[in-house]
Amino acid sequence: MDKQRSEFALGWKVLLAGFLGTMCGASPLPFNVLGLLFQPLNAEFGWSRAEVSIGITIFGLVASLMAPVFGGAADRFGVRRVALLSLAAFSLSFAALSLTPASLGGFYALWFLVGLIGIGSTPVTWSRAISMWFVANRGLALGLMLLGTSAAGFVVPKIAGYVLQNHGWREIFPVVALLPLLVALPICFFLFREPRADERPAVLSTSDGRLIGKTLKEAMRTRQFWLLLASILLIALAYGGAHIHMIPIVMDHGLNLDSATSMMGVVALGLLCGRIGVGLLLDRYWGPAVAFPVLCLPALACFLLMGTEGTMAILIPAAFLLGFAAGAESDLIAFLAARYFGMAHFGKIYGFLYMPFGIGSAISPIFYGITRDRTGSYDGMLMIAAIMFVVGASLLLMLGRYPDQGRKEEEPHGDAVPA
Description:
Elements: H1 2-23, H2 29-33, H3 38-45, H4 49-77, H5 79-95, H6 104-118, H7 123-133, H8 138-167, H9 172-191, E1 210-212, H10 216-220, H11 223-244, H12 246-252, H13 257-282, H14 287-305, H15 312-341, H16 346-375, H17 379-396, E2 416-418
Antiparallel strand pairs: 1-2
Helix pairs in contact: 1-7, 1-8, 1-9, 4-5, 4-6, 4-16, 5-6, 5-7, 5-9, 7-8, 8-9, 8-13, 8-15, 11-15, 11-16, 11-17, 12-13, 13-14, 13-15, 14-15, 14-17, 15-16, 16-17
C-alpha cells in the first residue's frame, strides 16, 4: 500500500499531463471527427464513404510506419522533447485539413502530413514516461492515462457536431485543433517528464542506473512479440472501422444525427470502464487471462449491430461493449510490452507493436466502407469482425508467464542502457 501511495504521490503530475496529451493527440481526434464528414463531403465533392475513409487509412499507415522512429527518438533524446514537438505539429497539421481542395489527392496529402508528424502525440510517447513512473500500479496508471481517449470521445463529437451544424464541415478542424494547442501543450510543458534515476522504481534499473530490458532484435526473437503483433492486428482490423463508421451504422438503424453522435459517448463510456477495470485487473492477475474474455465481448456487439431494426436498447449495449474492449486493448499493448520486454528500449519496441494497431485501424474503415457501398449494409464486415475479435483474443493465451524483470549483478549489461 505504501508503494502504491508513493508511486502516485511522485507521478500524479506526469500522469495528468499524459492524460491530457493522449486526449488531445493524434490518436483520438481524427477518429472522432471523420464519422461526421461522410455526408457533407459526399454532398460537396461526390466522394463515397470508401474514398473518404482512405484519408484516415493514409493517416494511420503513415503514423504507424513512423511509430518506431518516434519511439526510438524518445528512447534516445527523451520522451518530453519528442512528445511536445509532435503535439504542436499535430495541432497545426490537423487545422490545415480545413483547406481541403476539391481533389481527393489534396485531401489525402493533408492526411499524409498529419500522420507524418502527429504520431509522437499518441500513447507511443506518453506511455513510456508513465511506465517508468509506475510499476506496482502500471496497469491502473496506463488505464488512467488512456482515459484521455474516452474523454475525447465524450467531448470531440459534440464539439464537431455543433460546429458542423452551425459553421460547416471545414471549421471543424481548426476548432478541434485548439484542444492540443491551448489545453494539452501548456500543461504538458510544465508537468510532463521522465523520472530521474533516484525517482525511478528500483526494479527497472541495475545498480548503476541502467534501464533493464530487451533490445528490439532480442524481442523479435521471442514468440511473445509475434503473438502480440498478430493479436493486435486482428483486433485493430475488427475495431477500427466499427469506430469510424459507428455514426452511420447507428443512423442505418433509423436514428438521427444527434442520437448517433450521442452513441459515440456510449463508446467513450465503454472505453473508460474498460481502461479502469482492466487496468486494475492487470496489476493483480496474468494479463492474457484478463484480456481473453474482455476481447471476446465485441463479437457479441457485432451481432447486435447487424440489420436495420435495432432499437436503442440493443444499440447502446453494443456500443458500450465495443468501447470496453477497445479500452482494454490499448492498455494491454503498453502493459504487456513493458512486462515482457522491459523499459530499456520500450519506445522502439512499443512503436513496432503499435504499427499493426495503427495499420489495422487505418485499413479497417475502408473494408467497412466498401462493404456498405457495395451491399447497402455493414453486416458482412461485422460478421468477419466478430471472428477476428475471438481469434485475436485467443492468441494472447499463448504468451506464457512474465519474464523475471530483475537482473543479477554479475550478468553482463548488454541489454541495459544508461538513463
